[in-house]
Write a structure and sequence with these properties.
Blueprint: H1 18-24, H2 57-69, E1 77-81, H3 88-96, E2 102-106, H4 111-115, E3 125-127, E4 133-135, H5 137-147, H6 155-167, H7 171-174, H8 182-209, H9 222-234, H10 251-261, H11 264-272
Parallel strand pairs: 1-2
Antiparallel strand pairs: 1-3, 3-4
């Protein structure tokens, strides 16, 4: 998002540490096998089996469009790094909705030569079949959710999904800590856990306690996916100073995160790519 400084927009981007990418770009260690700027994902891996709990006539028409799009090798291309970061909610929406997409993966080494090709010099960017590019993670999440049937048609339910997504954004809290020395960073973040994060998690608990099965009613929406990604990222270990057992003090949030992680399509997604920090996105061990 343009609201916060992007790590890779700075001239000294090569000095950026992992948690810089966590807040402004990404969350997990880049596998060494990615040596080029583009990784073509086999069609069998582009999306996990869909979780289609509620079929309607309109959704049936959407599935027809998806099936047609699947015939094209250039359907949707999601440009980002190999980490979860600000593209993860969009990945999950497309996966759950069985919307074909291809990932264009950049590394710290290959990103600079492609930065100028992006609309605002940053990623994530979603490239359409006709070459048009959509920037800004929030816009991409909503677009992906609509393609996947995960953005409620009812205006109030859509607002409830947005409310949960906005409330669960924890990265803005830590944005100013990224350039601090490690010791100072840890100390400041521990203070932020008490002054900023605890109230945010308490409010999110209240929201979930007063919601139906999901944040926007009785159906899974993109709001649930965004909350899941935020909570999982928070306990992934990407932010030094934030304990991995943080949700032990928030049983409602812990149970909710585990329930979303156990949805078949999401569970399968992380069974295939549960390395590094993404291990925290898996269901809790029994």
């Amino acid at each position: 998002n343009n609201r916060y400084p992007r790590a890779y927009q700075y001239p000294n981007w090569h000095r950026i540490t992992m948690d810089h990418y966590a807040i402004h770009s990404a969350h997990s260690v880049m596998p060494t096998r990615w040596t080029s700027s583009r990784r073509h994902v086999p069609s069998s891996q582009r999306c996990a089996p869909a979780l289609l709990q509620h079929k309607t006539a309109r959704q049936a028409g959407h599935h027809k469009l998806v099936a047609q799009a699947a015939l094209s090798e250039t359907a949707l291309k999601l440009h980002y790094f190999g980490f979860p970061g600000r593209a993860e909610a969009s990945r999950l929406c497309l996966t759950v909705g069985s919307v074909p997409y291809e990932e264009v993966i950049y590394t710290r080494e290959t990103w600079p030569e492609h930065k100028g090709q992006m609309p605002f010099g940053q990623v994530p960017v979603l490239e359409m079949e006709d070459g048009k590019m959509l920037a800004e993670s929030l816009a991409i999440e909503r677009y992906a959710a609509k393609l996947a049937g995960l953005y409620p048609e009812d205006p109030l339910k859509a607002a409830l999904a947005d409310q949960a997504a906005f409330l669960s954004d924890i990265w803005e809290v830590f944005a100013h800590t990224i350039y601090m020395p490690l010791a100072q960073k840890i100390a400041v973040r521990r203070e932020l856990l008490v002054t900023k994060i605890a109230p945010k998690l308490q409010n999110l608990t209240k929201l979930l306690e007063t919601s139906d099965e999901y944040v926007a009613g009785d159906k899974l929406s993109y709001g649930d996916i965004v909350v899941f990604v935020s909570l999982s990222s928070l306990i992934s270990g990407i932010l030094p100073g934030v304990p991995r057992d943080l949700l032990e003090d928030y049983p409602v949030l812990k149970a909710y995160r585990n329930r979303i992680a156990s949805i078949p399509a999401i569970k399968e997604f992380y069974e295939k790519r549960g390395e590094g920090f993404r291990a925290a996105f898996k269901p809790d061990a029994a």
